[in-house]
Each structure stands twice: as structure tokens, then as C-alpha cells.
Amino acid sequence: MSEEVLEEKLGISGWIVLVIGLILTLFPVFWIISTSIKPMGQWLTYPPVFIPETIAVENYVNIFTGAALLTTFANVPMITDSIVDSAICSVFGTLFSIAIGVLAAFGVSRHRLGGEFFPVFLLAARMAPPIAAVIPLLILYSVIGLVDTYIGLILAYACFTSPYSTWMIASFIDEVPIELEQSAQVDGLSTIESHFKVTLPLIKGGLVATSLFVFILNWSEFLLALALTHGDIITIPVQIRSFTVYSGILYGPQSAFGVVAIIPLIIFSLIIQKHLVRGLTFGAVKR
Amino acid sequence: MRTTRNWRQKLSDFIDNPKNRFLILLGPIHVVLFLVLLFPFLLMIFLSLSGWEPGKIAWWLAQFNYGTGFLKVFGDARFIWSLARTFLIVAPAVGLEFVFGLIGALLFSKAFRGKKLIATLFLMPMFFMPVVVGYNFWMIFQPRGPLNYILSLMLGGAVEIPWLSERSAAIAALIISDVWQWTPFMFLIMTAGVLSLPENPIMAAKVLGASDWQIFRYVKLPMLKNIIVIALIIRFMEALKLFDLPFIMTGGGPGFHTETLSIYAFVVAIVSGRLGYGSSVALILLILFLLIITPAIRPILRRR
User: What ipTM is given for this predicted complex?
Assistant: First the structure.
């Protein structure tokens, strides 16, 4: 049945609802961008400035150079360290999570390893509150010296996202007919070889989508980073918070930092848009 | 040369042996889960049975308290209130997200221009870092910030709602921020559901003269039931962990009036360093969540 025949046009009332929804969705986006380009004198005025007349590029420049603002008592904190730390922890946390996720996904999807229990355990591990795991993890890390280390944070990120990667990759593997692997096995490949030489190349797109999805989770993660680091390592979310705590009110640079922090997330989300539903529902809903 | 081949042969035999499959495929994830979740979990049980706090004595020397730590948690009004408050914030937030998301999905089942672009714009909030969302709304909710200004223009008088420093206003502010960030999640999943609806029953109802409302209530809604349940469960479980937004926007204040379960546990255990008592709190939280999770994940598993 062709869609054009069935699809109804959106009426006037529908458009009104749509436009109201768009305004409510976009106003906060507009606000942080507009604040990020406001010169200092306009941060706190009332009535608030909505569209600044001059664009203050210095907000963006200062967070990368750490220049002192003459009129305030504090330097603008530099954000380069936190970008590097966030990138290291997110990238390696993601790679690690995907690596153990791929293996586990083959086990769950192709061999039903772990039976009924393992998938349930994974889901439960994901849904449990991270704070309940962080408290004992902090104790363990302080005993074995992993507090404030890359390895500690990477390990934690990989663990907390491994349920997502396993479930999402398993749902991609499910879509590859097992007959392909079986015919390769007739040609002499072992079972494990057939997983990696036949199925894996076919789900490349799915692996990329899963990686970006997991990266988004790691990049935005706040609670783990806050609890497991004390300053040697500082991730972006932790530093965004510390702006307000330690530097007084720096609306412009802090907003600029927020915008910079979000750019990769927006780009990645656009790339994986069509796989989002699957990721967010642990593969329970496919589109 | 021979030893290399021998070694290789052994390795590939090891990999080929079906007996080793669990070890190879599920081994790595188990090591990580054990190290990061299970071992600390056992440690937590031990610590929650002792009143250990760092600095005084080594943790393995702490005295057992025979579970009185748990009694203390249940006797702590701050804990009980944070439990109630979490539901007070999460229930209306998830409810509103669902309603708005469903309305959006139904609108998107119609044809209109610029659909793809508008959908992308609608999804944007979901990818904002929660910390940035918190900071942004903290600016917006300032007493002399943009929201109060817009409200004064609309209502024609000076509006100075102390959004973040008055109890119920702060709760409302948190609900609004959560709804802003997570309505896209509901919208996305509901859209997937609405798109997967079969055309024939809807056409049939239309031919029989059903109104739009009747088609929605008696044809579409029953067919969407499963996906609605899954979306609500996932969103609800995520929302119960609420931490970033209140931590950034109000820090749990004014007083403890926006302190959620996660913030309470974080402040008690990590900020004030009472790890023994914090372990009791964490364990109770975990049991509480497991009680909710166990029935909740059944519908998700059934879909696979």
C-alpha cells in the first residue's frame, strides 16, 4: 500500500501544537548559545539580554587560554585538560566496553550462553542506581590505588556501559541469518572464526552506531567521575560544575564551555539517529 | 618452528572446543563485572555490617554492628523523605514526558513539510549533557533570569518566583528541566511504535465512520500498549536515579528539599565520608531497586 494515499496532512491545530513544542524545546538551546556570546556586562542585567548586539568571542577564547578577566578576582579556568581527560576516558572506556560487549553478544545471541540469567543480570546491572555501586567501588579503588587514575575511570565506564553494548550488538547479530555462518563452517571455518570473519563485517554499521552511543553515555557521565576523581583527572562534566563552585559566576565562559562540550554529542547523535531507538530500549524496540 | 606451530595448534584447538566457549565469549565481561560490581558489592555487605569510617582503623578490623546500621538508615527521616521526594519528582515528570511524547508521535504520523528537520530539532535535548542542562536551567530559573522576565511580560506584572530557593518551586523547576530533557526519549520511542502500527485496522475504523479520538482510543492505543509499557519502565527506572540535575541546580537545597535518593547517598557516603553508613544506604537502595526492577524487566525480555 503506498503511503501517500494514506498519509493525512497535518491540520492547523496540529501545526500550532508543533510550533509551541518547538519554541519550548529550542528556547533553552537558544539561551545557552546566546549567553555564551554575551560580553561580561550583559551576563546579569535585568531585563535580561536575549540577543547580544556584539558577539563576545573572548568567552570561547578565554576558556582555551585561561586568560584573567581584569574586572573579576578569578582567572577563567582552562578547559583543555578536562577535554583531554574526557576524551581519553570516554574513548578507551568505549573501546573496552565494545570489546567485551562483542564477545558477550556473540555468546548470548549465537549460543544462548549464560542461559536465562545472564541477560536479566545485565539489564538489572544497568538499571540499578550507579550510586549504590560507586560507594563500595570508591572503597575498593582507594585500597588498590585506582582513585584518580585513567585506568580506574576507564574500567568503571566500560563496566557501566557494557550492558548497553552487549544488548545492542546482540540485537544486530540477531538480524544476520545464522545460515551464513553455517555455510562458512562447511567451508572449514571454526564456529568462533565464522563469528568474526562472517558476521562481524556484516554488522560494521551496527558496531559504529553502538560505539557512538556508548561514547555519548561516557562523555556525559557525571556521578562516577565526580566520586572517583579528586582533581588529578578532571572530566568535562566535573569541570563544568567546578566553574560555579570555585570561580564565582562566569556566565559567558561557562556557557561557552557547555556549548563546546555538547558539539560532539550533537554530531554523533545525528550520525546514529536511525539506531537510537534500539540503543535506548536495549534492542527491545527495533525500527 | 615446530614449537610455534604446536603452540598455535593448541590455541586454535582451545578456541574451537565448545567447552571453552563460555570462557572465551563471556569470560571478559564477567571479569569486569566482577571487579567493578560484584567484588565491591561483597565489600559493601561487609562494611554495612560494620560502622567503619576511613581514617580511624583499617576496614577489616572494624567491629560488627549486627545490622544496626540498617535500622539507623530506616530511622533517618532524611532518607525516608528523599525516597518520597524522588517519587514526587519522578512520577509527574515521567507522566508529562509520556503525554507530550505521545502527542508528538501522533502529530508525526501526519504528513507535513520539514518533517525530518523538525524531528531532529525535537530530539536535541536528549543529547545535551545532563550537567549542561542543569547549568542552563539554573541560569534560566534565576529570580531575575529570562523565565521570570518572560512570565512578567505575559502576565503584565512583575513576576519574581524564587525558582531554586523555595521548596515547591524548586521541585517544579526540576520537573520542568527533566521533562525538557527526556520528552524526546518518549517521542522517539512512541514514534517508532506509531510507525509500526498496521494500516488496515485504522482504515477499517475510518471507513466505519470512527472519529479521530475513537480511532486513537480504541484502535491505536490498545495496539501501542506493549511499547508504552516498555518506554515507561525504562524511563521510570532511569529517572529514579536522578542525580545530575538537582546536584547542579539546587545542590539538594533549599535545606534538603530537593535531595533525591542518589544525592542523599552521595552526600552521606562520599561528601561526609561515612562509608560504613553509606554502604548500608547503598545496599538498601540496591534492594529497593531490585524489588522494582525484577517485575519491570519482564516485558523488555519478552520482546527479544
Answer: 0.89
